[in-house]
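In this supplementary section we document a worked example of the pipeline. Step one takes a protein sequence of length 150 as its only input; no multiple sequence alignment statistics are reported here. Step two produces a three-dimensional model, which step three serialises into structure tokens for compact storage. The input and output of this example are shown verbatim.
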Amino acid sequence: AGMNGTAIENFVCVIYNVSFMNCTWHVGRTASGDTQYFLYWKTSRKEDLTECQNYIKDNCGRHTGCRFQNVTIEKKRAYFLVNASRSGQNIQSHEKMVMLYKIEKLTPPLNVTVNCREASHVCEISWQPPHTSHVKRHACFKYEIVIENK
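The serialised model returned by step three reads:
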């Protein structure tokens, strides 16, 4: 329940650098300036919801996101709940289920090397897969190479 337009909008999470995650949102359109939002999450049904420990704040001091560390992806799904409080106003909550592997922004491939032989006009390009906490089979990665003549 809660008044229309008070719930957060554009809730997005991204995992980066293997184990860091940021979740951000926009304040509800009709939420007043003294509305404060709180993010809770869990990665299994057995767990209790835990509150964000490191909020991102706007100029008014309202929570507009959360930074996480030591996030493990594996095959986990995460359940997020953002609710709000304001004296005298009933605020809509926002719930979202996310498959964590789908929101990972991969690091670039590692140790990229290029060896070209001028005589044969042949170049050999090699690299190692990016760091990730959950992909064990390197065949799962697809790469794109862009070659520019300079």
